[in-house]
Amino acid sequence: MIFGKIDYINLLPFHIFLKSCSMNNSFKKAIEHKKGVPSLINKKFQKRQVSAAFISSIYSNSKNIKTLPLGIIAQKEVKSVILKNGPCKDDLASATSNILRKVLGLEGEVLIGDRALKLYLQNPNDYIDLAAFWHDKYNLPFVFAVLCTNKHHQIYKKLVNNFKKKKIKIPQYILKDYAKKRHIEAKEIKEYLKLISYNINQKEKKALKLFLKKGKALGFKINASKDATIKGK
């Protein structure tokens, strides 16, 4: 079992949970060796180099994978997926967020992850929060990633059920470490995590279905060896 880790603050509670659960040490160590940005984890998953990961939601209905009712979700705003005014430019770390910009009919540079969060916190008026824009338009949350498996599905299913039952408390020393490394204050990290939810229920399923439908309508094509693209572009 090898889990692909997206090394962003938005999954910090889940990573803390994995470290505390009764899995063997080799599983926990492997997580640190198979970590990266969403686009990299997508490719590792597609090549079956990892058995499970939070996969960019645009890939979540791909063939030969199974999904679990857990994801990275913004109910309204998110602050870490933003659009900068200027020429259109994708974030190479992203898949879903680049497509979200196009689905929303916006122009600008997409920025995601912890660096985007830092920029937004410094100057929120300089950026468009893409999750907030989506919510204003459709009155739905936005699902950025879905937990998918290509092996050991039942084991990961048990992990998900256990995670849902637990209230995760982030130790202060971990908060301080993340604050130091990401140059974001600990209190800002705590406030940010209040914007993130994980359970995929009916409303989240509806939002994901709508996003996939709109992406397909615009001619989006999923390439197993590359990121999501638009046909002819």
Task: Provide the descriptors you would attach to this structure in a database record.
single chain, 233 residues, alpha+beta, D-Maltodextrin-Binding Protein, domain 2, six-stranded mixed sheet, three-stranded antiparallel sheet, 44% helix, globular, disordered C terminus
Describe the structure.
The protein is an alpha+beta fold and 233 residues long. The chain has a single domain, classed as D-Maltodextrin-Binding Protein, domain 2 (3-Layer(aba) Sandwich). It contains ten helices and eleven strands. It has helices at 12-20, 25-33, 38-46, 96-103, 113-122, 130-138, 153-165, 172-182, 186-193, 202-217, and strands at residues 3-6, 35-36, 52-56, 66-74, 81-84, 109-112, 127-129, 142-149, 196-199, 220-221, 229-230. It has a six-stranded mixed sheet. The longest helix has 16 residues, at 202-217. The radius of gyration is 17 Å and the shape is globular. It starts with a strand and ends with a strand. Residues 223-233 have low confidence and may be disordered.
